[in-house]
Amino acid sequence: MESLVYFKLKSLSLMNKAKAEATRLGGLLENKYGDAEVDTYYIGFKSGDAEPKSTSNGTIAFNSPIVSEQFDDFAQTLAITKEQVCFVLKLRSDDPGTAQTLLEEKMEEIVTMATAMIPDAEDFIDGIEFSYGVDGEYVRMAIVCNIPLVTEMVDEYTGMVDSILGDKFSATIESEGKWGKNIKELLESKISEVYSNFEAQIVAKINGHVIKNFINGLMEGSSVVEHLKPQHMAMALGFLLKGAKIQLNFGDFDAKSMAQGTPMAAMTEIPIKDLLTQFAPMASQIIGGQPIIKDILEFFRDNIKCDVGLMLHAPKGIFSMNFKTEGFKQLYEIFMPAE
Q1: Burial level of 32, CB count in 10 A (0-12/13-18/19+)?
Q2: Which of the 8 DSSP states describes residue 269?
């Protein structure tokens, strides 16, 4: 018991010293940076210089102007607002009007099936609204969540971030990828040709008195801090590092040469299409056994180009992803060959 009392008193003493030091450091940071403290982190990878045939870009943002910009881009023609929690899907089509009609029918089928198969699903579905629209070559669909349990949880976690890092904290992480092949060309390639000619980069921008607010919030012992998990702590501590930039250039990556003399050498000459064909019977059985999944995949095969965007939005945060390539039809036909 005496040891426990000593340990507690010693811990309190250390915490008081740490809190005083955090307050001092926080003041120095505020005097030095004011409200304009921004840290930028960059990491990039590159191999080869071929023209990109497939591209992707993604964004994660919180309390940043990017949240509003991304929302405006995805929400065109849709009956949704920035105060709502929603999911948006953006699909490119040669005939977006027909694609919209078919998409609405597919979603109605899914809702009907879920209501019939899942207990209490109707209560959940009553809290969801759908919105559809067409903009140029794109058909758009929004699923708006009005379920109190979900919206309250979003508000709670938003408040938690504000409490720990301050209401001036904002963060934006943007990624971009380019690849010298599309799906169609990939299926015609060998394994040794998969990795050539790619480029990727990730840029993170963190704004606000992260160090001061995080340390002070931690030392205050507020109830919010009790909810922090190790992965959250690791993420927040990463913000304490100064901005860094890393660029890795692999030149002309040659998987065949690297695998030479290893058990992998023989595999590098296997065509990708032949490799995937081995899994076709299993995939065909799984997809064929779920008619609704097969219908959705065939909807994409027949009506949608490989130019897809998605967004998950909350009032202060956003996650978005866009992907563009060619060859989904050829990929589907490997796993679901015509009978």
Answers
A1: exposed
A2: G
